[in-house]
Amino acid sequence: MTNPFFKNFGPINLKDIFKILGINNINNVKKIKIFDIADLNSASSKDITFFHSNKYNAQASNTKATACITTKNLQNFLPHKCERIIVENVLISTAKVTEILYPDSVNDDFDNSVKEISKTRFKEKVKFGKNVLIGSNVKIGKNCLIGHNTIIEKNVVIGDNCSIGSNTIIRNTILKNNIRVLDNCVIGKKGFGFFPKNGNNYRFPQIGIVLINDYSEIGCGSTIDRGSISNTVIGKNTYLDNQIHVAHNVKIGDNCIIAGQVGFAGSSVLGDNVMIGGQAGISGHLKIGNNIKIGGGSGVIKNIPDNSRVMGYPAKDLKEFIKDNK
């Protein structure tokens, strides 16, 4: 399961999914139960997945999902045994199915389960400032500190030797050990996922979490959105400067250094040992390799292979950038 916190209301019958999506020709649909929804890579033989872009042809051809929401143009990339669910708008259809399986993931209102930390079992275990609130289903390890006016909302796991700054909100997040989250951060709230439909905006349920690995640091004023279908992940020993935005499903590798005001659009994946200068922007659904250096103010709009140095908008090889800007 992608999110250990949201309740899964499955299984549901595949025929019921066809009905939910308004597909009437279901006479030949197999009698299959769907237990969960997952991305192409993570889906098991009990899951449904979705396939909406040629960028994911390779993943689609190897998916283990028993059924897939997709389009006529993409269906032939899927394994023969995978049941096709052909729709006009894959993402809206995926949102509808996710909402049935995880109805609690649609809204993201404030957590009214919180209590003053002095009234919880953590009062003797954690060193804390004034006006600290703790929600339900929270675990906190040894030697942790929490600053003033911080709210650890429901569904959070904090490992050992972690420091959480003041005026910070965390929910739907797992922090491993030896992590520092500085002041004024928001971690684990829902991402910017919605689709225009008939003059309204259809919200995509966000069922993922944020996972931050050992020895990482999150700078002041940063926002890390939880994943939609997969998780948002920060690697080991990765340092984020102040005022950084990490959108849903982004995965940042180990030993990365990200300078201030960098923005990551959804579902991009970064390798290890990536360095990014201030105010750079990374577009969505990109693959950034290992040992990459991206100059400050750059706009990355395509994949970058390992061991590259790029700069500019659109970002290009550093030598080419210097030559063009003499």
Strand order within the widest sheet? 8-11-14-17-22-25-28-31-34-36-37
Q: Between the first and last Cα atoms, what is the distance in angstroms? A: 52 Å
- What is the average of the pLDDT values? 94
Give me the CATH fold name of the largest domain: UDP N-Acetylglucosamine Acyltransferase, domain 1
Strand count: 37
What is the C-level CATH assignment of the largest domain?
Mainly Beta
Total helical elements = 4
How does the overall form come out from the CA principal axes? globular
Walk me through what this model shows.
By secondary structure, this protein is mainly beta. It has two domains: 12-105, MurE/MurF, N-terminal domain (Udp-n-acetylmuramoylalanyl-d-glutamate--2,6- Diaminopimelate Ligase, Chain: A, domain 1, 3-Layer(aba) Sandwich), CATH 3.40.1390.10; 115-324, Hexapeptide repeat proteins (UDP N-Acetylglucosamine Acyltransferase, domain 1). Helix content is 10%, strand content 28%. It has an eleven-stranded mixed β-sheet. Strands 7-9-12-15-18-23-26-29-32-35 form a ten-stranded mixed β-sheet, with no helix packed on it. A hairpin with a 2-residue loop joins strand 19 (194-197) and strand 20 (200-203). The longest helix is centred in the first third of the chain and has 12 residues, at 90-101. The protein starts with 11 loop residues before the first strand and ends with a helix.
